[in-house]
Amino acid sequence: MWVLVKLVDFPHCSTYKIQINPTYKKALRLPMDRKEFIYFRKKLNKTQDQMAQLLGISIKAVQSYEQGWRPIAVHAERQMFFLISRKRSTRKPCWTIKKCPVDIKKQCPAWEFRTGDICWIINGTMCCSGACKEWKEKIDCCRSCEVLAPLLPGSVNIFKSPKKT
To answer: Does the pLDDT at position 79 exceed 70?
Structure first.
């Protein structure tokens, strides 16, 4: 994975690329990378053209994301997670999974709008010790949460409905 960095202390320097070891990516909770993007597109069984249409972006943008030429835009990452989440037919709401107390639920937009199966897409939820102000802060919290984490690469059977007992 490559990250563009501007050296602030050295204004005469241009932008540099630094490589981040993939094993550290998870610990750093960086945004979606090209491998995740490709993984999700394939799990959705979509061509690049179909994915571009679903995300409301150009096919060149999809190709650029997959080649690693540009970072995946926040709105594309959010939409991708939404599409992936819809593949599972039955999911418990977040307030049930996380056992949220009533006073917290009443303050949370996921509870108010009954979006507990896709709480990670709603800004202002009461996870992570209160509402996050920016998407990056929120998605960092959500990536390690038991509601979204099962949808991420490496999770077992993310596209199969839970077994009924």
So the answer is: yes
